[in-house]
Amino acid sequence: MDDVRAAVDVGHVTLLVAVDLSKAFDMVDFDVLIDRLGALGWSGMACEWTRSYLSGRTQRVVGDDGTVSASLGRTSGVPQGSVLGPLLYALYANGAPRSLVHCRHHVYADDTTIYLHGPFTRAQELVRMVSEDLGRFAAWARTSHLAINSGKTRAIWLGSRYFTNKLANADISPPQD
Fold this sequence. Notes:
It contains six helices and six strands, in the order αβααββαββαβα.
């Protein structure tokens, strides 16, 4: 995020929102994933192999006291701890950045950060624009059967100490998801 430092160097502030998606790897919808893989140019055979790989999986939960639940079939989610799980999730979430109009983004696995730079004097406009993009991102998440965890999603102003102090004193709040 070298561009954040560059923004500070020219006297701008950055509004950054770290978006947390609830149980993102567990919520991947098999049918949506297969459709998206096909749209990315995967062959029918590769899509069916992927469906076969994901289907028929079960899960058990071990309690604090060591008791093990009955096995339950999985109808969504990519296997965590596997080589393919993060790759399949990344392909599933491939369209998320296209939902953004104003903001830049960084994506790592299921962590998405969106941000926007601008002059301190346009802080309210930055808040409005980031809020609009958060709304678009939330709509993408809903169509992807994912949910934003508002309790873990955080917004922060980045900039020089002078400008971040002015923002705190001006009561310009980062958007709430």
